[in-house]
Amino acid sequence: MRIGELSERTGTPRRLLRYYEEQGLIVAGRSPNGYREYDEHCVDRVMQIRGLLDAGLPTRIIKQILPCLDKPRTIYFPDATPEMIATLEHERDRMTDRIRCLTRNRDAISAYLAAVLDDSRRDTNVDTHGDTADPSPS
Known about the structure:
InterPro entries: DNA-bd_dom_put_sf, MerR-type_HTH_dom, MerR_fam. It holds the Pfam family MerR_1. Keywords: DNA-binding. This protein folds into two domains: 1-76, Multidrug-efflux Transporter Regulator, Chain: A, Domain 2 (Orthogonal Bundle); 80-129. It is 62% helix and 3% strand. It contains five helices and two strands. The chain has helices at 3-10, 14-22, 41-54, 59-65, 82-129, and strands at 29-30, 36-37. A two-stranded antiparallel ribbon has the order 1-2. The termini are far apart.
């Protein structure tokens, strides 16, 4: 597929896809006319990259861990430095904190939505049965 289709399928601007290629995160072949050509695997890869970037990982770390995200999952880092391990641990912990926060926010929104919908249903039932009091002052 060409860059436009990859962009459309992943919701990623073409400019960012070119940047990912420059950083060695994705690889594009070239057609005879010089256009970039991506295989189907790039759709998942771009989504993984975006998720990792959204989680706060820098591209230099993403480039190192991307091979671990392929199937079969063979995890082996002959060049894992103490700094890289510390960075990954820090980022993992940050993601865990973010997940907790997102979960709390989702639960709060769900509770609010349930209350609003319940209240709305009650109002609808009262209105359809004609049991409402006249809200205008006497």
